[in-house]
């Protein structure tokens, strides 16, 4: 289907209407003139708004700042704070690998045009310079958090990360034994000279750089020039080495410090002038050429190999490194000075996640939590009978993910199930879902759509695809050029009454039992004919690119979702203008699509009250009089990663509620296969509105409110602290106890 046809498709059940036109972005003089002209026609003057949209990258950096604030928050358990700090480092890695690398790639390709107004009118070089300064400031804040807050607090709690010079004789002997047996056999020291070129440093691999001078004197006793040496720290080993500890203490040493203590043994005949840990980050974007590929699988596999040796886009090195060493490395990797980040502490803070797993002190972590299991009604003999009686809504992790696993396992084992269809975007190693699909293929038709280009999971997805094929599963990779991001499972079953029925699971999260324990997501289990028939139509689209005109009641990207979303927002504006009940509450991970933001601005001006719960990037500018004064944006960052997408439209008093896989971002609306599904059961709609969305809107403990200038502030407390996630955990425990 062509792009023109895709954009023209409308959802038949919704009548889209045009809202007030808004400029996509205005330069300052034009913005002032236009706003002044509008103001003359209204009783309330409108403000001068030069940029209607916040920068995507600036918004992302602010999101990571909110995560860092959780690392700094002393009300969080100590090891959870360490974990939050590690997450900020991992997030920043991906930002550099993808976003910064993308800008550099465009500059290298000769593009340096001024950007849109939401980027401040900067060209790519200017934008990159601004981001580099922001990242440098953020990195400094990360290491202040580690050095000034977390390290002293860990030490006070009896968890010590020691330097080599501070080890006791017993600890040093233990560390040396570990080095001899486990580390030394894995090391390859390299001295850089004409016969030993600089080694190929893998993406994000931790290395040790050394400045060396040969001890042999040259002619006339002259000192020989200094040379570089490099040792790669083994990736297979934990970055923290446990040590024997005094009672009441838990001691570690960083692996790279242990290796650094022994470098003289690796470079005999050389004087070690300086040593420092460093690592480089490479461009990790995949560039696929459809016409050159025998298959999507082979293409992705080839590009994964290239990713490991993509262009270097950042170097991190300890600030103790001498200028000569930094300059030699910078020149070797062909980096500008702004691409070099000096760290006041261990390079690669993401590896501090090891500390969280290695320290067995539950008092320094969140109390353990397991979601409540779903209990069948007394009249239901199995899960299929339960779904026939009513739809089942699950809110993970507060509701156990085992119910979803049970649904797919039942499909595999139940002799009455005829066929199974499944999408897989990311799943976990040794996933019960994966095993169930292989088991099912022994006795029934099984179709799986595997998304090979789920970023940073490509390797594992290729392995799963091949294992599934070997087991007899029909494996497909969706439509080239579109990621398959929808979360769908469809079982066709001949029920005891002889009726052939479809049963479906539709979700907002990946089929991953591991992440389901700490991502918040929604699952719907249903056998409603109109929904399950549409789910089958989506699978036909994915496997045969069957050009369905509509998929009611599902909203499907890139075919019907974008236009249907605009129509739903416009309908609320119509209700508001007519004096009917109007309102929007939308929860998602990101909001960047310009047309959607413009539609929300128009709805606000029409009188619609709008509450947005956006975890990450948000380009909408809320609270601007005459533009978005009825729009409020909040972000909740807490124990669980907020991943659910829930969309509530008041619709004149007849609420429409949708959940699904899509954020309101261009990639989700136009570049992926996504599905939003309606929740029709009145009791489930009430639960989504009051129990789930209502709790996030009340949060004054972990919520931040987006301000018109782009900054976030803590939600004000006009009473006791209220954490939505704590409330939902407690609610789950109460319900489970009541069921017992």
Reconstruct the topology from this structure.
Elements: H1 3-8, H2 28-40, H3 56-72, H4 78-108, H5 124-156, E1 159-162, H6 169-183, E2 190-191, E3 207-214, E4 227-232, E5 240-243, E6 250-254, H7 255-260, H8 263-266, E7 270-282, H9 296-307, E8 312-318, H10 323-332, E9 340-343, H11 353-358, H12 383-389, E10 392-396, H13 402-413, E11 417-424, H14 432-440, E12 445-450, H15 458-470, E13 474-476, E14 483-484, E15 487-494, E16 500-507, E17 519-526, H16 529-544, E18 555-557, H17 561-577, E19 583-588, H18 594-606, E20 609-614, E21 631-636, E22 641-642, E23 646-649, E24 656-660, H19 666-670, E25 672-678, H20 682-698, E26 703-706, E27 712-714, H21 724-739
Parallel strand pairs: 1-6, 8-9, 11-12, 12-13, 14-25, 17-22, 19-20, 20-21
Antiparallel strand pairs: 2-4, 3-4, 3-7, 5-6, 7-8, 10-17, 11-15, 15-16, 16-17, 18-25, 19-23, 21-26, 23-24, 24-25, 26-27
Provide an overview of this structure:
With 740 residues, this protein is an alpha/beta fold. It folds into three domains: 57-364, polyphosphate kinase like, CATH 3.30.1840; 383-544, 2-Layer Sandwich (Endonuclease, Chain A); 555-739, Endonuclease Chain A (Endonuclease, Chain A, 2-Layer Sandwich). It is 38% helix and 20% strand. The chain is built from 21 helices and 27 strands. Strands 14, 18, 19, 20, 21, 23, 24, 25, 26 and 27 form a ten-stranded mixed beta sheet that branches. Strands 10, 11, 12, 13, 15, 16, 17 and 22 form an eight-stranded mixed beta sheet that branches. Strands 2-4-3-7-8-9 form a six-stranded mixed beta sheet, sandwiched between helices. The longest helix has 33 residues, at 124-156. The radius of gyration is 28 Å and the shape is globular. The chain starts with a helix and ends with a helix. The model is unreliable at 1-48, 287-294, 298-309 and 736-740 (pLDDT under 50).
